[in-house]
Amino acid sequence: xxxxxxxxxxxxxxxxxxxxxxxxxxxxxxxxxxxxxxxxxxxxxxxxxxxxxxxxxxxxxxxxxxxxxxxxxxxxxxxxxxxxxxxxxxxxxxxxxxxxxxxxxxxxxxxxxxxxxxxxxxxxxxxxxxxxxxxxxxxxxxxxxxxxxxxxxxxxxxxxxxxxxxxxxxxxxxxxxxxxxxxxxxxxxxxxxxxxxxxxxxxxxxxxxxxxxxxxxxxxxxxxxxxxxxxxxxxxxxxxxxxxxxxxxxxxxxxxxxxxxxxxxxxxxxxxxxxxxxxxxxxxxxxxxxxxxxxxxxxxxxxxxxxxxxx
Length: 311
Description:
The structure is a single chain. By secondary structure, the protein is an alpha+beta fold. The chain folds into two domains: 19-260, Hsp33 domain; 266-309, no CATH class. The protein is built from ten helices and 14 strands. Strands 1, 2, 8, 9, 10 and 11 form a six-stranded antiparallel β-sheet that branches. A six-stranded mixed β-sheet has the order 7-6-3-4-5-12, with helices on one face. The chain has a two-stranded antiparallel ribbon with strand order 13-14. A hairpin with a 2-residue loop joins strand 4 (90-98) and strand 5 (101-108). The N and C termini lie far apart (43 Å). The relative contact order is 0.17.
């Protein structure tokens, strides 16, 4: 396997994948993001061996995470998506984004999933669930979180519901996933949002009488086809051009490269364990005197000898 230049041994990226592109349509007061994932997505999925339906769900969630995470203006900021459920096959879904790096996992009931049809509904997977999206701004230390019920027929619909209810920000979200025909996966998505005029000091669209600007942009964005989102030979800027080439001006932002990377760290975990009292560390250890910590993001186990903390 070829390395990607960072020493992590990931597959060499070929084609227009593992990228995000931002764009704005100034006259329509709209902004958007287009994302396509390939080897980065495979890197996350390969660590877990999920059944196909859970793999597709995580692929969509990671695509949504990239769409939202790349809107962060703070280079050190972090975006986290978390879906918690009541009575669903999926117990917990978590994805996050920081500096172009993504990770994610799904905790689910494999036995209950096996009893379901091959294409279960969002409600069947989540039951009464809630979607939480958290933006952490490293520069200011500010945190913003919105929580809404997981409603709609898809994760994309749930995300639109989040923006409409939590942010009162009219949005269109489309997500698509597929096998790439070579034993891997590919996923793509688009996010288009309406902004207040000038972005500051003006009312949002939902209290304005004139909805024509947003309805026009949404109608154009709705013409996107899954095949376009998933085609690794189609540059992302060409998607923006195909959708909005009749507009007076479309500003395209620099491409953002995306990768899979888990930020778990043995030294950090050891330092956390060391803060516990000796009695609690003893309770953590197994019969062989080892303390084990599992990272659910990358399925990696860290093991530490209890005796090493004696000093």
